[in-house]
Design a protein that fits this description.
Strand content: under 5%
Number of strands: 4
Helix content: 55-70%
Shape: globular
Distance between the termini: 73 Å
Radius of gyration: 31 Å
Number of helices: 16
Order of helices and strands: HHHHHHHEEEHHHHEHHHHH
Strand order of the largest sheet: 1-4
Length: 383
């Protein structure tokens, strides 16, 4: 088995950055720039899932919770930015013109508070939830079910609070993004560049974590948790760090999703959205660096293209692809590269066990004297 050079992922990240930040804005139309920005948001969340699930073995089916925290924090800020000072958002006026702005909305008028909330809210929620679960050694299917239930609960909560969050209609009609007009094409490209740049930074962060001591402990916790505990490390703390990092990435993805798409609803953060994120990671390859991001972007493209032209059959295609990948490529499409590389280039095994046995050295053997031959008989008689 050949060891991957440590600088090869950096070259891949550099090529990916050039494609996203240089080539894409130069050749794509504004429609596809917006779509690619949306795919980058899903890819950011998928990179975090790859760290928690692929490296840590935690099937995080509830990333919609953290995606929603970042998305609604950004949406509330953009809604207030488009509202006159001291005024109410339009949807609140429609339901109750005499109502006042809810107290938890008021701090989101501040740019700094909004950015801090996008980063700190997932840390707090994931930290408290992860500590409670991992310290009690809850894992496997139980952890997946609990995380999925939280996503469903958050979507139901938002749907039921129509006057505070817009309910099923969600929040939309954003005009400004931190002072920049969102309808301007130059500003749309700017938001896309921010999303693409943050995707590159997330890939670099996960690459560094994977090659660090923490990355080794995370894999060891996934494969032999009791041995890690025996060596003096607490597996709960190791898994908690990966879980919090994945939550922060999902929150950042949700925050960028709002100005790019222009709307956020409970459907974008519920159970189905969380499953789509998991499906993208599984398709690309959860244990690889680029697999989760590319898989999520492929799922996003399929949902935008095939989902719009064939809405009834798209979900069946997705299910079929997911089943086939699970059965025949459990490590995702990224494992095809390793298999193809093994077929094209097979390094010579120089280990002692693989070397052929040396040819035996034949010693010269003297031919025994035969005394029954005539010359030997004459010599014997002479003696």
């Amino acid at each position: 088995m050949t060891k991957i050079k440590p600088w090869l992922p950096l070259i891949g990240i550099a090529v990916f950055a050039v494609l996203l930040l240089v080539v894409a804005p130069a050749v794509l139309s504004m429609h596809w720039i917006n779509n690619l920005g949306k795919y980058c948001c899903w890819a950011i969340a998928a990179v975090g899932i790859g760290l928690a699930w692929g490296r840590g073995g935690m099937l995080v089916l509830g990333q919609g919770v953290f995606f929603g925290l970042g998305a609604y924090a950004m949406a509330m800020h953009l809604t207030l930015e488009s509202t006159a000072p001291g005024g109410l958002p339009v949807f609140m006026i429609l339901y109750d013109p005499s109502a006042s702005l809810p107290a938890f909305w008021e701090p989101f008028r501040s740019d700094a508070f909004t950015l801090a909330a996008i980063l700190l809210l997932p840390v707090i929620v994931a930290g408290v939830l992860g500590y409670a679960l991992f310290k009690r050694r809850i894992k496997g299917a139980y952890f997946a079910i609990l995380s999925q239930a939280l996503a469903v609960a958050l979507a139901v909560l938002i749907s039921s609070t129509i006057r505070e969050t817009g309910g099923d209609t969600g929040l939309s009609d954003f005009k400004y993004f931190f002072g920049y007009v969102l309808n301007d094409d130059a500003n749309k490209v700017m938001v896309f560049m921010i999303a693409a740049s943050l995707l590159i930074l997330c890939l670099l962060a996960v690459w560094q974590l994977n090659r660090s001591r923490f990355g080794e402990l995370l894999i060891a916790t996934r494969d032999a948790e009791e041995r890690v505990r025996f060596l003096g490390y607490d597996p709960a703390n190791i898994k908690l760090v990966a879980y919090v990092v994945a939550a922060v990435m999902a929150s950042i993805a949700g925050a960028l999703f709002v100005p790019i798409v222009g709307i956020i609803t409970p459907a974008e953060i519920g159970a189905s959205a969380s499953i789509l994120m998991i499906a993208g990671v599984a398709l690309g390859g959860r244990a690889s660096l680029f697999g989760p991001a590319l898989g999520a972007m492929a799922i996003g493209w399929g949902q935008s293209s095939l989902g719009s032209s064939w809405p009834d059959g798209w979900i069946y295609i997705l299910g079929l692809v997911f089943i086939l990948v699970t059965l025949f490529l459990p490590m995702g499409l990224s494992s095809l590269f390793a298999k193809a590389k093994g077929l094209v280039w097979r390094p010579r095994d120089t280990s002692p066990a693989a070397l052929p046995d040396p040819a035996p050295v034949l010693e010269p053997v003297e031919e025994p004297v035969r005394i029954d031959e005539p010359e030997h008989l004459e010599e014997e008689v002479a003696k």
